[in-house]
Specification:
Shape: globular
Order of helices and strands: EHEHEHEHHHEH
Distance between the termini: 32 Å
Strand order of the largest sheet: 3-2-1-4-5
Radius of gyration: 16 Å
Largest sheet: 5 strands, parallel
Structural class: alpha/beta
Amino acid sequence: MLKILAIGATSTIAHETLRHFAKDGASLFLVGRTPDKLQMVADDLQVRGAKQVETFVLDMTEHDQQPVMWREALETLNGVDALFVAHGTLGDPDAAADDYTVALRELDNNFLSAVPILTLAANYMEQQGRGAIAVISSVAGDRGRASNYVYGSGMAA
């Protein structure tokens, strides 16, 4: 059965996508920022047929904790076949335009925070000779708007 590590598992698109894998009996390792919401998603996927559902609470901007999460996912699932990344934030565009620290936080959430896990997963999958990585972005990355250029640039990256 497929073993999936899902980052941003509480997002609507991730949850709906994972329902399809759950009904096929996949083993899932779910990562999200909000413990209660993460548990609700986990419970839903369990009753929909997932063979195994584990959770890990993490804000992906805590870059140094990503290797800890990655190792736990590998150990818990006994390997990973697929990484599904669907996390990000849609912050306040005016605040990001006015304060570079807000803009940097948005860019970290929507781009830089994906770099550690993508690197870990790509190296692992290359070494094992198989695997899949799927990253969900936003149409804003393709068709950015001047009114929300920080979000658009993060999604494009």
